[in-house]
Amino acid sequence: MSDYGVVPTGFASKTLDVLLAEIEQKNVDRFGSDIIQDEQSPLGQFNGLFADTLADVWETFLNLYQSFDVDGAEGPHLDIIGKFQRLQRLTGELDVAFRTRITNDGKTDIKLSKRINDISAIDGVSFAWIIENSSHEANSYGMPPHSVAHAVIGGDDEDVAKVIYENAIGGIGLFGDYPVSIEADGFCRTVLFIRPIEVPIRVELDVRHIADACQCAPPSVGTITQFVIDAFAGECGYKNGDTVTEDRIVAETAQIGNMKIVDCRIAKVANSQPAASIATTIYERPVIISPNVIVRYV
Q1: Residue 163: enclosing H or E segment and its boundaries?
Q2: So which domain of life are we looking at (predicted)?
Q3: Rounded Cα distance, 243 and 234, in Å
């Protein structure tokens, strides 16, 4: 195997010194050891020019390799690599998260990600999540042993059910309270999944400006509000069955900097009863949206 080009550790480019030495050696092999090709000679200058050109070619090779190497690829190139794995980027999914899914070595995790990806790709789907119970006992959600629960918001019932059925694994039961009948393999099938109810959460934050060394202005109320909303939306947002805690909201919000969280209060919008934590069932998904986030400077 060559020491250059595509190697087990990646891609090894030839350096300018190596290229120049190879050119000079080929000249010696062809014309003999008496040939004059030092730096001041015409042939030596031509050798240097040719070596520079070849170095540029090797740099192009390296850039091309890196653009299709999952660890270095970005944007559209990463999308192409994902297609090789039959994976598509989720709406709003950043390169880092998509790269992790592509390079995930755990076979089960890859399959789980693929199923979520397939459901998320259905027209109209705004949320998709899967909870598995691979144990021999019922879990805390009430799922029986060896079962899987698909939670989906949006999308046509039949379209969702067909994708779930196509990705189903023999011997693993489908868990849910939302049955949909479809025709598959020439037979009528009933597919169970969950249509989680969104549970709006009210968040109240009392914050205090902490001046930094540059005396930067404190973040605005609008900036803090949007940060809280964004922190708990998308791929990092709450899933069905999650528990909302004051501690997590404080930890996320504190990342803004230039301020201190003096107090945090959370409650279900439906009952407005403050609590340090708010649990939801597998049939519910907590959501934090703009009208329900209140920020005050104290």
Answers
A1: helix 157-166
A2: Bacteria
A3: 17
